[in-house]
Amino acid sequence: MVLLVIVVVGSLFSLSGCSGVDIDKRSVVVGIGVDVGKKARFRVSLEVIVPKGGENSGNGQFFILDQEANSITYAVEALQAKSEKLLDFTHTKIVVMGEDLARENADLLLDYAVRKPGLQFIAWMVVARPNANALLKLKTKSG
């Protein structure tokens, strides 16, 4: 019994509190688009929001990061290497695949989406015509 108490108390001291990355050092990815690439197998596009505080927060400002690679994972890793901030996928709401990719290799994107840590299962999965990059760049007017 005493040994159990010592182990439990010892493990409590080894737990860390807030050792995560600050929000200022994160880029929040709200959309992922995957198309068939021209020079490589895949073209991955990430829609990243531009965080702004104050009254104008949530005004729809975003930018797109693109990368071609022979694997979706390698493309995301290359985009992470180019980014100043840590790419955060916990707020990703949409996963878009181009029509050509949907006809050929949809299972590869679905496998990636299921296995990606931090990617929620509540994200919308859609097929875009003509391609995913064009859909992610589309900006709608919101009231």
Automatic annotation (TrEMBL):
<dbReference type="InterPro" id="IPR008844">
    <property type="entry name" value="Spore_GerAC-like"/>
</dbReference>
<dbReference type="GO" id="GO:0009847">
    <property type="term" value="P:spore germination"/>
</dbReference>
<dbReference type="InterPro" id="IPR057336">
    <property type="entry name" value="GerAC_N"/>
</dbReference>
<dbReference type="Pfam" id="PF25198">
    <property type="entry name" value="Spore_GerAC_N"/>
</dbReference>
<dbReference type="GO" id="GO:0016020">
    <property type="term" value="C:membrane"/>
</dbReference>
<feature type="domain" description="Spore germination protein N-terminal">
    <location>
        <begin position="21"/>
        <end position="141"/>
    </location>
</feature>
<protein>
    <recommendedName>
        <fullName>Spore germination protein N-terminal domain-containing protein</fullName>
    </recommendedName>
</protein>
